Amino acid sequence: MVLAASMIGSGCAGVVMGSNTSPSGSGTPPPSTPPPTNTPQPQLSATPTSASFPSIAMGVSGSQTITLQNGGTGTVTISTAAVTGAGFSTSGLALPTSIAPGQNSTFNVVFTPNAAGNVTGSVSLASDAPNSPLVISTSGSGLAATPLLTSSTSSLDFGSVVVGSSSSLTATLINAGNANLTISSVVASGAGFSVSGAGANTTLTPGQTAALNVTFTPAATGSAAGSITIASTAGGLSITLLGSGGQLSSHTVALSWDPSTSDVVGYYVYRMLADGTYGKINSAPVVLTDYTDTNIQSGQTYTYVVTAVNADNVESDYSDPVLATIP
Question: Is the pLDDT of residue 16 over 50?
Answer without folding.
Answer: no
